[in-house]
Amino acid sequence: MDAKKIVEKLESIGKDIVKQLELNQNPYLEIPERSLDNVYFDKETGLIKLGSKKQKRYYLNLSQAKKFMQTLLVASKIKWLLEEDKPSLSIRQLYYLLKHTIPGSKENTFDTQDETDPIVEDVEVMLDVLRENLRLIATPNGVLAGDLIVEDKTGDILDYTKMGSAGGAIPPIVEDEYFHIKEINVEYVLVIEKYAVWNVLNQQKFWKKNNCLIITGKGQPARAERRLIHRLAYEYNLPVYVFTDMDPWGYYIYSVYKQGSINLAFFSEKAGTPKAKFLGFQTADVKEFDMPQSSFIKMKDIDYKRIKEMKKYAWFQNKEWQKELTNLEKFGHKIEQDALVSKSIEFTAETYLPTKIENKMFLP
Predict the structure, then answer these.
(1) Which domains does the chain have, with CATH numbers?
(2) Is 58 annotated as catalytic?
(3) Selected catalytic residue, list 40, 58, 59, 96
(4) pLDDT in tens, 134-165
């Protein structure tokens, strides 16, 4: 959605408030609920989605008045950023831009960033737009390498085959206006949980030898990484393979790329990639690739607890994942993707990944 349409939506919200005041009504804002009981898994699309429940935030309510005014302050400042064509800000910078002492009082508009962050998300769901379209950014962690040429908003050309051993950073906004893909010549996208593993593969030019993009979000992915992978899958119809540790935390990272997350369910349709496949590491690989016992890490109570939680999630209900989680539980150990170097430094790039991709050794 372009800036003009977003401004029109914001103005409409403001006009509704004014109309309520003119009618001597208690002004309120209607906001989709971002609670666990308003989140569901849509089997048809394969995404975690936000439900239809809405809440009303009133001005003349002692427990809601401050948050009501804070919501209007955030919306007003976003409108200003868009109308004045200001640079995109981090949500930390937005917090400082909004924070001040209310004249004639000792009360601050905001005391901590914990107050602004959820309101930014409220405004996102009210407008049904990406935060990035509101001139607000989250700090990205990701890097990538591969045969991809991009033109950014300044007109600079970024060639991701020539970024060296460090790779190229994924920018905070990856929408076409800011990150216009001019050329892409790859067969698939390989998403790697850890930077250390990504770094070795990049040094070995895995992306060049296997004609792919290699991307890492350095653990739990930020918004930009998820959004970019979504674009690559949908706009260019590229297969997406996700490679994580063999533990419940790595498995969940995969599900965030694939189905989205509970906390950001409203973002899933714009950033989830249901076509993604789990490449590994998985329990069957222990025997298949003869992993040494020295690479096993004994699971703790928190790991078993997490497995039990994940078994109940609707998006892990298929028989393949139920079997994998049960096998992991029985195995009682975790294995990090880094441990593949115990076979040899070249093993991941030359044997493990090519074998799994060629033989389609995936989980759905």
Answers:
(1) 3-34+53-137 (1.10.10.10), 143-358 (3.40.1360.10)
(2) no
(3) 96
(4) 999 888 889 999 999 999 988 999 999 999 98
